[in-house]
Amino acid sequence: MSRGPAGVLWDMDGTVVDTELYYIESLTSIVAAHGGVLGEEDHHAVVGANLWDMATIAIRAGARRPAAEIVEEIVAEVALRLRDGIPWRPGALDLLAALRTSRVPTALVTMAFRSSAVEVVRGIPFPAFDVVVTGEDVSRGKPDPEAYLLAAALLGVDVAECVVIEDSPPGVAAGVAAGASVVAVPCYVDLPASEAYTTWDSLVGKDHAALVAEFRGRRSPDRPDSADRLPA
């Protein structure tokens, strides 16, 4: 059995940075300008969604603007707020640093545009990621596995030998569909218990050893969902 994951693939919003609320507030403002209101279901749908799906949500809620304009405004507002200061998720930077020390390849996999990802990567006080995949690099956003499959390919590793760290239902679904071991760390939306992934309350106190233990546990022959994913 492998000693540990060949790579760790990180979601960004809600996982590395606490920015899900930025998108919700931006959409709320856009919709309100046209007399509309985002409902609770809309708020949940925004979490982990790609930008074009967010624009669809805004239009459905009453925003009378082209989707491209809505996306452009969201991207600009989020980038501006990130330049004012980056709200890191608890434990994220410590775990990233531990992975760099252990020389584990890492990728940032986000449905945000590259401009937002660049702001986050620049704010990390060490070279945290070997690869960055954004919503502009794929034709299908999460929950489709395309972004995670691309990230693993760019790292030169088998996605089935990777751990994905996610916070949202679409992101978790994407990681599972890609065939990776998935650790869910919910932020704004609860995730139901499932044998398809592991849920952690927080990244605080988690290190490389914790991810190795999780990776090995997901591939234990005793797990009913692991037999078809064991390394040859």
Q: Can you tell me about this structure?
A:
The chain is α/β, with parallel strands linked by helices and 232 residues long. The chain folds into two domains: 155 residues, HAD superfamily/HAD-like (Rossmann fold, 3-Layer(aba) Sandwich), CATH 3.40.50; 64 residues, Orthogonal Bundle (DNA polymerase, domain 1), CATH 1.10.150. It contains nine helices and six strands; from the N terminus they run E-H-H-H-H-H-E-H-E-H-E-H-E-E-H. A six-stranded parallel sheet has the order 3-2-1-4-5-6, with helices on both faces. Helix 1 packs parallel to helix 3. The termini are close together.
Average pLDDT score: 89
Are there runs of 5+ residues with pLDDT below 50, and where? 224-232
Q: What would you call the shape?
A: globular
Q: What is the number of beta strands?
A: 6
User: CATH superfamily of the largest domain, please?
Assistant: HAD superfamily/HAD-like
Order of adjacent strands in the largest pleated sheet: 3-2-1-4-5-6
Helix content: 40-55%
C-alpha end-to-end distance: 8 Å
- How many alpha or pi helices? 9
Q: Strand fraction band?
A: 5-15%
Radius of gyration: 17 Å
What's the SSE pattern? Answer: EHHHHHEHEHEHEEH
CATH topology of the largest domain: Rossmann fold
Structural class: alpha/beta
CATH class identity of the largest domain: Alpha Beta
CATH architecture term of the largest domain: 3-Layer(aba) Sandwich
The major β-sheet equals: 6 strands, parallel
